[in-house]
Amino acid sequence: MRLHVLICLFVMNVALSQNQSVKGQISYADAPVAFAVLKLSNDDGVYVTYSDSKGLFKLSIPFGNFSVAVEALGFKSKYSTIKIDKSNSNNVLIELEEDLLGLDEVVVSATRNRVNKKEAPIIVNTLGEKLINATQALAVSESLNYSPGVRVENNCQNCGFTQVRLNGLDGSYSQILVNSRAVFSALNSVYGLEQIPTQIIDKVEIVRSGGSALFGSNAIAGTVNIITKDPVLNTWEVGGYLGLIDGDTPDRVLNFNGSIVSDDLNSGATFYGIHRDRDAWDANGDGFTEVVELKNTTFGTKFYYKPTERSRLTVDATVLNEYRRGGDRLELAPHLTDISEELTTNTIMGGVSYDFNNEANTNNFSIYSSVQYTDRDSYYGGLGGGRTAQDSLTALNAYGVTKDLAMASGFQFTKQFNRDVLTTGIEYNIGSTEDNIIGYNRLIDQQVNATGVYAQYEWKPNSKFSALVGSRFDYINVDGFYRVGSIERRVDMSQATLNPRVTLAYELMDDLKFRGGYARGFRAPQAFNEDLHISSVGGEPQFVILSNDLEAEFSNAFTGSFNYTKEFNTMQTNFLIEGFYTVLEKPFTLVSTGAQLPNGSIVEEVRNGEGARVYGANFEFGVSPSKKWLFQVGGTVQRSEYQEDQILFESDGSNPGERDILISEFVRNPNYYGYLNTNWTPNETYNISVTGTYTGPMIVPLVVSDRGFLRLNESSAFFDLNINAETHFDVSDDFQLTLNAGVKNMFNSFQDDFDTGPMRDSDYVYGPALPRTFFVGLTIGKLH
Amino acid sequence: MLRVFFLIATCFTVLGSAQEEKINWLTFEQLEIKLSKKPKKVMVYFYADWCVYCKKMDQSVFNKAEVKAILKMDYYAVKFNAEYKDTIYFGGKSFVNKQIGKKRNPFHDIPKLLAGRPNTPLELPATVILDEKFIIKGRYNRYISPKEMVSILKH
C-alpha cells in the first residue's frame, strides 16, 4: 500500500518537472560512503536520494544550482552548494568531511550528574563495597581502618565496645551519620557501629576535620557517613559466613536481602535481615573472655516512592535485637560469676524524608525526621573473686535498665546558582537517656536538646578556585542528673555558640589541588559514649561520672592538603598528603580518683583537662594500572600532647606506694598507623585481595591496684594482614553464586599481655580486634 | 485503549506468542544490509557491563511485549556494547575504539558519535531513535521506563 503511494508520487514528480537523470557518487577521503541521505534543494524544490552500498546515487533533477545537505553518520558535506549541468550530470561528486560535533542539535535529556570527587572542595574518602568485601567485614567498624587518619579501637574485653578515632581524637569528636542524618545517639555510638550489617551499605564516606558547617558542632575530627544501598534492579541474595576465631571458636552469620523496584523506577523497596552468632573466645586460658559472645538479629526495610518526577519520599525502619555476654562462666546467671557484662539491647529506629526540586532542578528542599529508641537490660558486675555474703548481694544488685531516645528532625534547602551553591538548614535534636542500676545507686538521667542553624556558601569565582564558607549557630540545653553511690552531680546549662567553618581549594595545576580549612567546634558537658559503659577493675565496677563544674570544651582545627590525581591512559594514580593541627581548650579528660565508693568501686571523673594539641599528617597513595590491579597504602604520623602534664590518677596520699600519675601525651593513641589494600581481579570469575593495617606502639594505662593505681605500659606494634579469595559463577541470568575463603590476621599479630582473672582491668585491650581467623562464605541469589 | 488492544491483539496473532519472542537485535553490519534492502526506523541502544540502569532496561523494558512488538513491526533494533573493542564497518567507513588502552571505560566511536554530546561525558544507558533516512530524531542518555519507551517508539 505504502509502496503504491510512493510510486504514485514518484510518477507525479516526473510528470511535473523537466527533470534530467543525474548520477553521482558520495565519497569521503576517496572512499565511497554508503546509505548517506543526499538532499539537494533550491527555490523550486527539494530532491532527496540515498547512496547505495557503493556510494552511488541516481537522481531525477532539473539542472541548476542547489544547496547540498548530506546526512550520514558523522559526516557533513564539504561544500554548501553545487551546480548540476550537462557537464557533470553523469558524475556528480559529493565529497564529505568529518563532523564529530554536528550531532548536538538534538534535544537531550540527561541524568543528573553526581559531584565529581576530584572537584569537591572537601576531601572525601570513600570506602566502597569492594573494600568491605575484601576485608570480609561483618560490621562497619571493621572496614573503617582502611582510610587515612581513621583507627577503630576495641575498648573492652567484657563487652567488645569499639570506637572510631579520627585524626587521633576519640569518638566523641566525630559524628556518625546514616544517610547524612545524625541518628546515632549517645548510647548508640557505644555499640552501634558493630550493629550495622555491611550488606546494606553502599559506601562509607569519611570526611576528616570539620570543614563543613553542615555537620554537628562536636564534629571537629570529622564525620563518618554511612550510605545505604538504593536499589535499582530486582535482586535477592542469601549469604552465609563461618569464621573460626583462633582456628576453633565459631562466628556464624546468615543474612538475606532483596529489592523490588518498579519498572518506571518510581517506587522500590529493600528488605534485609542478618543473624550473627559468635561464641566467646578466651586468649589466655584464664576462663575470662577476650572476645565476647554475641547474638544479633537485625531486620529492616527501606522503601521510596516518587509522587512526581521531582520529588521523593523515603521511609526506613530497622529493628535490632542483640545479646552480648563477656566475662567468665557464661553458662551461669551473671550474678553467680566473677565478672559478667551482659547486655540485651532492643533497638527500633526509623526515619522519613521527603525531597523535592523545582523544575529547573536548581532548588532542592529536604525535610526529614528520624527516631531511634533503645531499651537495654544490662548487667555490669559479678562476685569479683570474693565469695562473702556481701559480694553476693553486690553481684545480685548489678542489673540495670537503660532507655534511650534520640530524635533528629530538620529542613535543608540547597540552591544551585550558575557555579555556586548555597546550602542552609535547621536541625533539631533531642536526646533522652536514662540509665539506672538500682543496686549501685547509679543513675544517669539526661535530656539534651540541641538546635542548629547553618548556612554555607560554595563560591566558585573561576574554574581553579573554590571556597566553602559557612557558619553554624548551635543552641544546646543539657539537663542531667548523675549519681553513683553517694556522689551526685547535676548539669543544667544552656549554651549558644557560633562556629565558623572555612575551606578553600585551589587548583595549582590540572591534576594538583590544594585545600585548606579552618573549623571551630565545641562540646557541651554531657554523658557520652564510654560514660555509659561500666568496665570492671579489681573485681569491682568502675564508674564514670561528670565532675562538679565541668565546662564546655572548645576546639580549633586547621587542615591543609595537596591532592594529586592523574590518569595515565588506563592507569589511575592518586596521592594525598594532608596536615592537620587541632587545639583543644579544656578537653574532657577521664581522671581516676581511686576507690571512692564504700564498696571499693573506682570512680573516674570527666574533668576539663589541660589544653592539648593534636597535629600530624595523613597520606594516601593509590595506583591502579588497570581494572585488574589496585594498590593502596595510607597512613598517619601524628603527635598528641598536653600543654602541661595531664593528671590521670589522683592519689589521696593514704598509700605511700601510690602517687599522682601524670602524662604529657594522649593515651591509647599511636603516633604511627596505616593500612594497605591490594586487589587483583584477573577476570570476572576470580578476585584476590590482601589488606592489612599497621598500628604503632602506644601508651596504654593498666590498673594495677584495687585502688585504681595505674601503670603506663607501652604496647608493641601490630601488623594485621588479611587475605580473601573469591570466585563467582553465573549459573544463569537469574542465578549466581559467590564463594569466598580466607584468613584474617594471618600472622596472628595480637595482644599478648591481657590482664587475667577476676580482678583484671577489662579496659586493658589494644591492637587488632581478632586473632588469626579462618573464614569461608557463600552467597547465592540473583546478584546482578 | 483500543489501539493498545489492537496492538496486543496483532502481536499475538501475527507473532504468535510474543512474550517468548526475543527482540531481534542487529549488529551495525546487519543493520546496513537490512537498510539497503528496506529502509525502516532504527533504534540503537548502547549499554555497558557495569551499567546498572542498562541491566534494568534489559530486565524491565526490553522484555515487555508491547515494546518488543513495536520494535519488531516498525524498527530495526541495534544493541551495542559501548565498550566494543573491534572495528565496525558501516556506511562505507570504519569505526574503531580509539580509547582502548587509554581509558578505564573505553568508549567506541559509534556511541560517541551517535549518543555523545560535546563537553559532556557519554552517559549510559543511551537510546537513539533514527528515522527511515537515518536521521537522529531523539536521543536519551538515561533510563527509559517501558511506558515512555512505547510512546517514544510510537511517536
Automatic annotation (TrEMBL), chain A:
Domain TonB-dependent receptor plug positions: 117-223
Keyword field contains Secreted: no
Location(s) in or outside the cell: Cell outer membrane
Stored Gene3D superfamilies: Carboxypeptidase-like, regulatory domain, TonB-dependent receptor, beta-barrel domain, TonB-dependent receptor, plug domain
Domain TonB-dependent receptor-like beta-barrel residues, every copy: 285-745
Top-rank taxon, per record: Bacteria
PANTHER family assigned to the protein according to its UniProt record, in alphabetical order: TONB-DEPENDENT OUTER MEMBRANE RECEPTOR, TONB-DEPENDENT RECEPTOR
Family to which this protein belongs: Belongs to the TonB-dependent receptor family.
Protein name: TonB-dependent receptor
Source species of the chain: Winogradskyella pelagia
UniProtKB/TrEMBL annotation, chain B:
Protein's recorded name: Thioredoxin family protein
Keyword terms: Redox-active center
Gene3D superfamilies per UniProt: Glutaredoxin
Classification of source organism: Bacteria, Pseudomonadati, Bacteroidota, Flavobacteriia, Flavobacteriales
N-terminal signal peptide: none
Keyword Protein biosynthesis listed: no
Protein source organism: Winogradskyella pelagia
